[in-house]
Amino acid sequence: MRLRDKINEDVKEAMKAKDAKKRDALRLLMSAFKQIEVDERKELSDEDVIKIIQQQIKRRDDAAEQYKNAGREELMQVELDEIAYYQEYLPAQLSDDELTLALKEIIAKVGASTIKDIGKVMGAANKELSGKADGKRINECAKTLLS
Question: What pTM value is reported for the model?
């Protein structure tokens, strides 16, 4: 079953269960999928869906941070709840040890030795670890390994 189909089924289940928060969060996600399909005139693959989910999580995370800084705890919680719903559809995230090991292999592959080579490492790491680790985590770990 395609990831998008699973999300659509989960929307229906949330409707049956009268779980308005989950239903609304997943509908927003489906809306983002539809927008990309219309704009780019293409059918989304599972990889595209995962990228969109990651983008939506990043947006919600940024919004939650803004709400926290503004003292709007109730709105921050709404964003955090949506993030939790979305993360169910992402592949399992790498642990810190697994990420470090994968980055060491990538660094050896691209021949990076100093912090100046971070661009090469990030390019290869983002392709290889897409969906398995957040870009921010990859960057911080790579900087630590190269310095």
Answer: 0.74
Cα separation, 124 vs 69, in Å, equals: 35
Count other Cβ atoms within 10 Å, centred on residue 2: 12
* Residue-wise pLDDT tens digits, 80-135: 999 999 988 888 888 888 888 888 888 888 888 788 888 888 888 888 887 788 78
Instruction: List C-alpha distances in Å: 101 to 75, 86, 145.
Output: 38, 27, 10
Q: Residues 121, 142: contact at Cβ < 8 Å?
A: yes
Q: How far is CA 58 from the centre of its chain?
A: 7
Q: Is 72:111 a contact under the CB 8 Å cutoff?
A: no
Structural domains present in the chain = 3-87 (1.10.1510.10), 96-146 (1.10.10.410)
| 3: nearest Cα among 82, 86, 70 | 86
